[in-house]
Write a structure and sequence with these properties.
Largest sheet of chain A: 4 strands, antiparallel
Oligomer: homodimer
Number of helices of chain A: 9
Shape of chain A: globular
Structural class of chain A: alpha+beta
Largest interface: A-B, 52 and 52 residues
Helix content of chain A: 40-55%
Number of strands of chain A: 10
Low-confidence stretches of chain A: none
Distance between the termini of chain A: 24 Å
Mean pLDDT of chain A: 97
Strand content of chain A: 15-25%
Chain lengths: ~240, ~240
DNA sequence: CGCGGTGTTGAGACCTGTCAAGACGTGTGG
DNA sequence: CCACACGTCTTGACAGGTCTCAACACCGCG
């Protein structure tokens, strides 16, 4: 299951056999959580980071007034909170969207990586910088894209990220979010998500049924989204 | 002027004398740029990172349609693109808001830091994670806060960040952004920025004149913004 | 069989954008 | 020293995208 993390890293850089073993040895144990749980609460002092082995999760920020905004959706192979290694506590919750299997990585072991494996350190550092790039792209969406463009953009992003870990079938993939959760990702109400989704269907760009998305016209969807994949840093390069 | 970077780092962790010297030796030279210039263009292959020694800059993302969104505002002491060390190219422009003096840090020297100074590496890693936390908070603003709350939030954020480097005078600070640039930060048009600014003035929360902001009622401003400073990670903690 | 979560639809309100025009102010060249 | 030009700020009228509130349909599951 940690394979997905390795796929993600190897897509961007070379990982030696020794580094791979180091990555595997990071995990102290795994845990399971049900869907719709707060896995990590904002503000808690943390001594370990988590890797999604199976399931979908998200970084969720709450306003006292009750509004909630996702900052990133996590797929298998993602660290949900590698950044907690240096931050020590999070400014957001980690929530499970589906039931999840998570690998637990003690910060003590990450510290050893920074002391002994400079290249692997840079690879992990890159990984948190990739999260930040996704945050920026979402900020651009939230600030400047229309509802329909935002939604189209998210479907494009997820297609590419799921392709990296082999979880797509052509232009189709499982999509477990409710419309309310989609709204929390896109800064929209669930009512407007519903209408926007219908609009994308009416335009024959996507199909959604049974918690599965099929992109019918990827080029057109990218056009609506003004999608440019460079923020996902999908090319391999020595870090 | 690199002092501001050290202030920022020391606010969050202890920096030894040796590390301080290492930080100082990172800088190969300095450059000056005029206001309103693209300092780094998205997509360029980069071999060095920049530190703002003097002036204000921003991370700006553009849409093909011409819309622009800032993802973060950079103050003296900020790395504008420490993340380019691992990303190698940026998904956004770095633009100068005012005339700037910038310190150039070759990536080769940062690589040596990762090989020889694990704690300083973690401090720098933290710094990029702090940028990501700011991106997340901005995403929350853009997704869920009203125009007036967003604006109030930005003024609160800048007050705290400027306090770290000693660039405030009470609750007052120089604020060089035009209303159009403020709109690019907040995901608003300049017209609506103008009206929102008037509303904050009418509520007697802030005063703006001569490119200087004075916060008249910080508690009320924080209330409007639903401001919670924990995302700025202002407490000192060993990383 | 009923229930809670999810999805759908409608009507109306409101926040923010668009377009357009003019005021202000500051630096520059004649 | 004046005139002008340009960027910036301000204002008004109107459009439109998204939200709110409410009701109802659907459906899987206990």
């Amino acid at each position: 299951m940690i394979e997905n993390l390795l796929k993600k890293l190897r897509r961007r850089d070379d990982i030696s056999a020794e580094e791979e073993q180091t990555v595997r040895n990071l995990v102290s144990h795994t845990v399971r959580v049900a869907a719709d749980k707060v896995v990590i609460r904002a503000g808690e002092l943390l001594k370990e980071s988590l890797i999604v082995l199976d399931g979908w999760a998200a970084r969720a920020k709450d306003l006292p007034s009750g509004q909630r905004q996702f900052a990133e959706i996590h797929l298998p192979g993602d660290f949900t909170d590698l950044h907690s290694f240096t931050l020590k506590r999070l400014d957001h919750d980690i929530v499970s969207i589906t039931p999840c299997v998570l690998a637990v990585v003690p910060h003590e072991r990450l510290k050893k990586v920074t002391e002994r494996f400079p290249h692997l350190t840079r690879v992990f550092w890159f990984s948190t910088n990739l999260d930040a790039a996704i945050h920026r792209e979402w900020a651009l969406s939230l600030g400047r894209r229309s509802a329909i463009a935002r939604m189209a953009h998210l479907f494009c992003e997820l297609l590419l990220r799921l392709e990296v870990i082999g979880m797509t079938n052509g232009h189709s993939y499982d999509f477990p979010l409710t419309q309310a959760e989609l709204g929390e990702s896109l800064g929209l109400t669930s009512v407007h998500v519903n209408r926007t989704l219908q609009e994308l269907r009416r335009m024959a760009l996507i199909e959604v049924e049974n918690r599965r998305v099929t992109i019918l016209d990827l080029d057109a969807l990218k056009g609506v989204a003004e999608f440019d994949p460079t923020y996902l840093y999908l090319e391999k390069r020595t870090r």
